[in-house]
Amino acid sequence: MEPTVSTTVRTRFAPSPTGFIHLGNIRSALYPWAFARANQGAFILRIEDTDVERSSQEAVDVIIEGMKWLGLDHDEGPFFQMQRMDRYKAVLQDLVAQGHVYPCYMSTQELDALRERQMANKEKPRYDGTWRPEAGKQLPPVPEGVKPVLRFKNPIGGSVVWEDKVKGRIEISNDELDDLVIARPDGTPTYNFCVVVDDLDMAITHVIRGDDHVNNTPRQINIFKALGKEPPVYAHLPTVLNEQGEKMSKRHGAKAVTQYRDEGYLADAIVNYLARLGWSHGDDEIFSRQQLVEWFNLDHLGKSAGQFDEAKLRWVAQQHMKTADDAVLASLVLQQWQSRGVAVPASLQQGDTLAAMCALFKDRCATTVELADWLSMYVGAVQPPADELAAQFTDAVKPAVAALAARLKALPTWDKAAVSAAFKETLTEAGLKMPQLAIPVRLLVCGRAQTPSVDAVLALFDREVVVQRLLET
């Protein structure tokens, strides 16, 4: 049932803290976040930590850290399922009292034997309802000293039907569903039950999650109905595949979201790339976070699996680097240098010089790591490749380089125009063409033969550094 216009959209991201969070996982946060923001709704973070043995605080921290870096801010939470056990047990007792839940004393060994018999008969393995109470049915004697599981009485006959916002109409026969265990022998509720109580208590209107949950949905809808409530709108997202066409996972080489941050990708680039990995707005490939929020709806979610492509990610990242704010890039480059233990002059830590350097070099980079590599010529010694230097810095060129150094040292002002004029005078005097002088100068001063416009690059150095590097060989 679609909420009315006056209903506040409420979405959630509900990860399990049982390992690091990769791009495939975080897309299941991006879409509900974007949908909530597009509809002036609320986005809730819920940690499904009932798998106590595998859950860890470290995994929780990485989830929150990754979301914070990507700017996927939550309005409520994080809520932890393990802190809500009393609430789940209270709802369980209500369902028991209403006859929707019953104790089942079938042992694990009996269940295994039942499955084996069913599979031998080429039947679907399923619980056979031995302990399900029915009018006029004689239940087996309760075994002594056995704690039962609690099972949900799934409706018999009819179908569970919902209009999935990605997959369209889905209909599952109730006869395909056996009676789900919703509490273990120690009384702790199981996943499918906890999810329903959480979605009810948090007034979730839209559940946007991976399609590995499709099989859970009919069971959850039946629990909603038993509680007398309408289920939320569902949108089940196709899987994200890795470059080999396998489901993205740690086992198949997926990287933690925070590793992309450490590799210097801009958060907005990752958000843009992930959004297009299963959603589209016409042919738009590059867009801002604001545009994503403005455009996002559930009608343009893709129906087929999205495939991760590192080359495409780098291309998207390059487009975002080109338009990124230079002052923001400067602060990120400083962080990169600090993490490497680079001594950064005070002159670059304040003022606009580092931002100007970023503006000059950012078009050549996909990440701030690459940008920090390029700009390292300004904060440390350079080591030009010996073979290139020997080929370019010839005896015929050395006098011109020395003459240029003298002119640069004597310039009344130190800026791009003045440096350019010094080059032109030296070229005219020596009878050389620009590459014959510019390439050896780049190698000596910058440590590499290719850079942006040489006058612009040199003007951002301290004059003394340029002159010294030109004269020291």
UniProtKB/TrEMBL annotation:
Q: Where is the Glutamyl/glutaminyl-tRNA synthetase class Ib catalytic domain?
A: 9-315
Keyword ATP-binding belongs to the record: yes
Renumbered to this chain, region (Disordered) spans 123-142
Q: Where is the composition biased (Basic and acidic residues)?
A: 123-135
For this chain the motif 'HIGH' region maps to 15-25
| Pfam annotation, one family | Anticodon_2
Reaction(s) catalysed by this chain, per the record, are: tRNA(Glu) + L-glutamate + ATP = L-glutamyl-tRNA(Glu) + AMP + diphosphate
In chain numbering, motif 'KMSKS' region lies across: 247-251
- Which keywords describe this protein according to UniProt? Aminoacyl-tRNA synthetase, ATP-binding, Cytoplasm, Ligase, Nucleotide-binding, Protein biosynthesis
One GO CC term, this protein: cytosol
What EC numbers are recorded for this enzyme? 6.1.1.17
Residues that hold ATP according to the record: K250
Q: Where is the Aminoacyl-tRNA synthetase class I anticodon-binding domain?
A: 337-470
The record's listing under PANTHER family reads:
GLUTAMATE--TRNA LIGASE, GLUTAMATE--TRNA LIGASE, MITOCHONDRIAL-RELATED
Q: State the function annotated in the UniProt record.
A: Catalyzes the attachment of glutamate to tRNA(Glu) in a two-step reaction: glutamate is first activated by ATP to form Glu-AMP and then transferred to the acceptor end of tRNA(Glu).
The protein's assembly and partners? Monomer.
Write down the HAMAP family for this protein, in alphabetical order: Glu_tRNA_synth_type1
Protein name from the UniProt record: Glutamate--tRNA ligase
Q: Which organism is it from?
A: Aquabacterium soli
User: What taxonomic classification does the UniProt entry list for its organism?
Assistant: Bacteria, Pseudomonadati, Pseudomonadota, Betaproteobacteria, Burkholderiales
